[in-house]
């Protein structure tokens, strides 16, 4: 379980197909300090298990299924990724409950300055609009954000300067693919209502 509060951005050293799985190697100064093999780390919002650690380098095994269902299909060496260690039971919950289980990918439609503020619009996968509500929560590449506009399968958020500086969202361009995780409560309510109506 995560909060969507990114601790640092790491750098992809390599991402290549291995004998048993895709192997992702990332350098991270903060996150690598106290993680161990077997720990969970959200990488661009996707929960991965640390499979190896050497100094500031972390290695993850990525299943083909995970790669196919996330924006990892476009992940290259040198890319910047958002990193967050799993939530500790005695920690603060500054964002919202994020599982690290990606619901699908979205496409950046707009990222622009509007005065001193920054506006981000993302087109989501078909049918995702049913899980979006204005003032609700969404995780974009693992960043906990508040939905300010929801229209069809498109959502918009405003980004504060800190978010732009502390995450990789400021480097996104129109057409880029991002990982999306919709609010856990919305998904449960949808299933409960569908069960009652079915």
3D structure, described in words:
- The chain is mainly beta and about 200 residues long.
- It folds into 2 domains: about 10-85, Elongation Factor Tu (Ef-tu), domain 3 (Beta Barrel); about 105-195, Beta Barrel (Elongation Factor Tu (Ef-tu), domain 3).
- It has helices at about 65-70, 160-165, 185-195; strands at about 10-15, 20-25, 40-45, 45-55, 55-60, 80-85, 105-115, 115-125, 135-140, 145, 150, 155-160, 175-180.
- The strands form 2 sheets. A 7-stranded antiparallel sheet has the order 10-9-13-7-8-12-11.
- A hairpin with a 2-residue loop joins strand 7 and strand 8.
- The longest helix has 14 residues, at about 185-195.
- The model has no long low-confidence stretch (mean pLDDT about 95).
Write the layout of secondary structure elements.
Layout: E1 8-17, E2 22-27, E3 40-43, E4 46-54, E5 57-62, H1 64-69, E6 80-85, E7 104-114, E8 117-123, E9 137-140, E10 143-146, E11 149-151, E12 154-159, H2 161-166, E13 177-182, H3 184-197
> Major sheet: order of its strands?
10-9-13-7-8-12-11
What structural class do the secondary elements suggest? mainly beta
Q: Runs with pLDDT <50, length 5+? A: none
Total number of strands: 13
Number of domains: 2
Termini separation comes to 31 Å
- Percentage beta strand: 35-45%
Helix content: 10-25%
Strand and helix order: EEEEEHEEEEEEEHEH
Radius of gyration: 17 Å
- How would you sum up the major sheet? 7 strands, antiparallel
CATH class of the largest domain: Mainly Beta
């Amino acid at each position: 379980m995560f909060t969507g509060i990114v601790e640092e951005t790491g750098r992809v050293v390599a991402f290549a197909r291995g004998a048993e799985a895709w192997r992702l190697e990332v350098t991270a100064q903060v996150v690598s300090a106290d993680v161990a093999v077997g720990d969970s780390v959200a990488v661009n919002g996707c929960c991965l298990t640390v499979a190896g650690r050497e100094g500031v380098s972390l290695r993850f095994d990525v299943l083909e299924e995970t790669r196919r269902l996330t924006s990892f299909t476009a992940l290259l060496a040198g890319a910047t990724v958002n990193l967050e260690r799993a939530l500790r039971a005695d920690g603060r919950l500054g964002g919202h409950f994020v599982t690290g289980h990606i619901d699908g990918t979205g496409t950046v439609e707009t990222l622009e300055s509007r005065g001193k503020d920054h506006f981000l619009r993302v087109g989501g996968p078909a049918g995702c609009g049913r899980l979006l509500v204005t003032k609700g929560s969404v995780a974009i590449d693992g960043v906990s954000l508040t939905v300010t506009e929801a229209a069809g399968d498109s959502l918009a958020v405003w980004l504060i300067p800190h978010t732009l500086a502390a995450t990789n969202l400021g480097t996104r361009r129109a057409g880029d693919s991002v990982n999306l995780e919709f609010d856990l409560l919305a998904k449960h309510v949808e299933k409960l209502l569908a069960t009652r109506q079915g």
